[in-house]
Amino acid sequence: MRMPRRGLVIQARTRWLLVGLALLFSLVLLMYLLECAPQTDNNGSLPGVVGESMGKEYYQALLQEQEEHYQNRATSLKRQIAQLKQELQEMSDKLKSLQEKKSPKVNGMNYQGTKEQTSNDLLEFLHSQIDKAEVSVGAKLPSEYGVIPFESFTSMKVFQLEMGLTRHPEEKPVRKDKRDELVEVIEAGLEVINNPDEEDGQDEDDGVGDRQLYSENDFIEGYYRTERDKGTQYELFYKKMDGMEYRHVTLFRPFGPLMKVKSETVDISRSIINIIVPLAGRTEAFAQFMQNFRDVCIHQDKRVHLTVVYFGQDGLSEVKSILESVARETDFHNYTLVSLNEEFNRGRGLDMGARAWEKGEVLMFFCDVDVYFTAEFLNSCRLNAEPGKKVFYPVVFSLYNPAIVYANQDIPPPVEQQLVHKKDSGFWRDFGFGMTCQYRTDFLTVGGFDLEVKGWGGEDVHLYRKYLHGDLMVIRTPVPGLFHLWHEKHCADELTPEQYRMCIQSKAMNEASHSHLGMLVFRDEIEAHLRKQAYRTNSEPVG
Known about the structure:
CATH superfamily of the domain at 273-519: Spore Coat Polysaccharide Biosynthesis Protein SpsA, Chain A
CATH topology of the domain at 273-519: Spore Coat Polysaccharide Biosynthesis Protein SpsA, Chain A
Low-confidence stretches: 1-6, 37-53, 102-111
Mean pLDDT: 82
Strand order of the largest sheet: 3-2-1-4-5-6-7
Number of strands: 16
Radius of gyration: 44 Å
């Protein structure tokens, strides 16, 4: 027979009630024993507790220890809360101060704080250094000695003008500060290109995935110069291996952090160079020139026009034959031959070559028959000349007499193997201004050459000074891809005293390095010493 459901519920509740009462009674009994237990000298045992037990003092000590722990914790929390309140108050005061600075009172009492004013003054000073430096516009200079030349560099080498007797025309940046400086500049240029801002003219909507990123391997070349009272200017050029667009970044360090001046894309894919060469005789040198022209301009660059201005009749037929042969073999017809039946005048020849162009604006490279250039130089020519803004006056590396440089060899090596930047092989021709890249309109606007100058030298310096006295910027820097080949130089008696002095100076400078010239001067003394050494060796008795 089953018990009714209601009876089961009542029975369960009664059982749980009895258990609860028993537990409550046990708790009350335990508390009574703790309160009523007699105190003894030793820790007594609680009756009814099996085993060894602790006395009342133990629990009191335990409670006191816990109380001290929580008091210490509370004190620490109060201290942290006080610190947080203080910091919050300081932040609130700063925020209030910034709000007051942004919204100055009408009575003019709330101006910017001292620190902010100092920062603004410094920034204003740094920008004024850029404005005063010759970065965006040219400066009028009294003479050719007033220009501050650039020095050029790649990621591995520096090409420098001021060598003294210990430095080299081409060398790796040995000093750590120079190395770190150039690395920092290249990276800063990359940062400007890869993270353009609004003033760089690039669309902000173009994401990083759509924009072509540049790396250190895309750095082509750079130029730098320091105006000692203003700062250092850097002109940097980057290009992708498979592209024709160059990225040009100008930076300026006003004796402080680098400051971006501009960042632009330079497209030189359609920039034609009219190479103008004045010539009289010297057909063998012209044949060698045309071999280099064929390799560099026709086969590699393919964006040039050649203008040869020939003086006199002797050798004219050979020059025509060389040009026609190259045209026939390479299908190159972008050349002009201007014949002048008069005495050679370099300035007049270049002037006639510039005026013979009838297709409007063009970039011109005034060149000589003894100059060897590379395809990289032609791009440097395009990048550093800009109509109405700047002209390019590269410093040529002039090679010494190969008969002296390679005197220890039976014959000098081929020309291509002589093209090295070493102290004993050549020097930066920083006193020469004949090789230049400039636009035709700038040349005509400044008035061209002084055609009154006759014979050798002087006309290039006059033109250079015209630009220095004007508003165009003159880019003066050594470039690794431009060489002047040695050739015998004759100084004619018809030259003026000034021209003759310049001709002799150039002849002496072109012959050999300081050490090689010293060996030639003391050659007799050296040979006498060698003879004495040989005599002593032969006179020693054989042991």
